[in-house]
Amino acid sequence: IPLPPPEEQAAIVRYLNYVDRRVRRYVRAKKKLIKLLEEQKQAIIHRAVTRGLDPDVPLKDSGVPWLGMIPAHWEVQRLGYAIRLQTGFPFPSTEFVQGERGIRLLRGINVTPSGIRWDEVVRWQRKPGDGLDEFALEMGDIALGMDRPIVGSGARATTIQLNDTPSLLLQRVARLRPTERLDPAFLLLLLCGRLFRDYIAPIFTGISVPHLSPQQIKGFRVPLPELKEQQEIIRQIEAEA
């Protein structure tokens, strides 16, 4: 090993300790900034999906405690009326296949607030007439992890992209497929914002392992503007946040 004199060794150690302290301060500052930006983004989303874009629009009481006042021309609907919900199939782990032979199964651990992660993959070998077509995922579907749906970085909800297909839905994951009344991007904003968090907070109070049921997902009451206004809100949020 290279061995400088003891005095130089001590100087190197002092210098590295100094650099380490500076790096740690820098990382803390960056984390604080990221948290503030995320809070700002959440505030922008929350206001847009509950009040719309017109600051002078007449308001009405939504009748929902976690929702409050909404534009007078908006509806409040249970989410179940605006989506087609499908929960996953209980594929037995003893029949998972290895390698690239089978189709990927979307598990809860694959669903993150920032997208689908396929770093841990299990697969299933499909057979003709196996009756699994209803569990197939399509681009544009919204996937929601039903176990611990809220984590530190947000809701475990994300949009299925082209590279996430083909795949099948495993149990404890829900697929939300919007009807023509609801834009998929607006649905994702509703799930990833404060409204969904405020809705499920009292449901999970005192529960050690939070788990959403299909009925609880369908029972989420949401503000629902017309489709055109939903799309205007989406464009504005993309520009601001």
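Second entry:
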Amino acid sequence: FERVCEISSELSNYYRTNLNDGKSITTLARELENIQSYLRLQMIAMSNSFDVEYDIDENLLHYQICNCTLQPLVENAVLHGIKPLRGRRGKIIVRFLSEGDDILLCIIDNGVGLEQKSFFSQKGSGYGIRNVAERIKLYFGKEYNVCIQPRKDDEGTCAIVHIPKR
């Protein structure tokens, strides 16, 4: 019964923050709350087979972002990086950094890496990332974007959303 209550609570929070009262813009605080609920649900579904670390500059939480920007990136990290991982424990790091007048939002995983991630080769795949990148450019300008790159140690992937402080 406790597990059902936990799942119901997380689902309720996830959908509340995801729907954002129909608004297309939210704060980094609400976006963080959304992905925290999503990650807790995934941890339940995957029997706590991975860890999550948050490195958040709390001074950034009041800034604006397009609603549902980070969830597709976190979903890719879980489903395409961590889930197919064998031989070591998965880990996702969520990092919000200030860089001058800009903000870097990083979703880092220690999963199978870009070469092995299936979302680049499946037909119709990558829509979520393309959608996020297009919305970032439309709202903030063409100099802002989403970048997906392999980690230096070749274990996992780093997705970075670059936005201005607005």
